[in-house]
């Protein structure tokens, strides 16, 4: 009788404990739609600025339920375009002074941490790799679920210090006497990822 009571008590403990353990949610991968997603850039110098686009090569976002918790994207650096269609500028951006596309054909971003903000806002921290150099960056983004089951992740202003990736051409920090030929160290990226299962 004592043995039966002990076994019953043990069974009750196991059942009660398991009721408080949250079920594991299997991560789901959403593939980035390369045709619908966009990546734009903007850079400034003393006498003006330039902006344009660059194509994504691949990408994915990882979710647990509706919560973003991982992902990555690859940028095809050979597709850098200037909005003013300057072939000279595009060639210079692809050269070693800037992105060295012949040697470094792609840049990558890998999500390392996502923290919740208000509403559909999140803060994303990850590793950005340009010209083979990796640095952490953090930026705000919005994650919106669409009626067709796809998801849109948008970051309107990702600020990148190019000198941290070895891009020092006409940097005032590197060349203080450069005057009005100076190009600002920071450039901005704006990304819109549309992804689906």
Automatic annotation (TrEMBL):
Q: Does the keyword ATP-binding apply?
A: no
Signal peptide per UniProt: 1-21
Domain annotation Lipid/polyisoprenoid-binding YceI-like: ranges: 29-196
Q: Which InterPro entries match?
A: Lipid/polyisoprenoid-bd_YceI, TTHA0802/YceI-like_sf
Q: Which Pfam family would be a valid example here?
A: YceI
Name the SMART domains on file.
Answer: YceI
Keyword DNA damage appears in the UniProt entry: no
**Keywords on record:** Signal
Name of this chain's protein: YceI family protein
Organism this protein belongs to: Pedobacter heparinus (strain ATCC 13125 / DSM 2366 / CIP 104194 / JCM 7457 / NBRC 12017 / NCIMB 9290 / NRRL B-14731 / HIM 762-3)
């Amino acid at each position: 009788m004592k043995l039966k009571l002990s076994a019953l008590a043990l069974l009750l403990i196991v059942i009660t404990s398991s009721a408080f353990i949250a079920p594991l949610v299997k991560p789901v991968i959403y593939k980035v739609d390369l045709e619908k997603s966009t990546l734009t850039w903007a850079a400034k110098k003393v006498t003006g600025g330039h902006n344009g686009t660059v194509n994504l090569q691949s990408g994915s976002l990882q979710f647990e339920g509706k919560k973003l918790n991982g992902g990555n994207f690859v940028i095809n650096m050979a597709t850098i375009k200037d909005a003013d269609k300057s072939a000279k500028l595009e060639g210079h951006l692809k050269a070693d002074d800037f992105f060295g596309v012949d040697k470094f054909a792609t840049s990558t971003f890998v999500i390392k941490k996502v923290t919740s903000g208000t509403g559909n806002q999140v803060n994303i921290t990850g590793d950005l790799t340009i010209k083979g150099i990796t640095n952490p960056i953090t930026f705000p983004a919005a994650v919106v679920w669409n009626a067709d089951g796809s998801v849109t992740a948008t970051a309107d202003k990702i600020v990148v210090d190019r000198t941290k990736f070895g891009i020092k051409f006409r940097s005032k920090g590197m060349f203080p006497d450069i005057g009005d030929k100076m190009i600002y160290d920071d450039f901005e990226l704006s990304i819109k990822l549309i992804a689906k299962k």
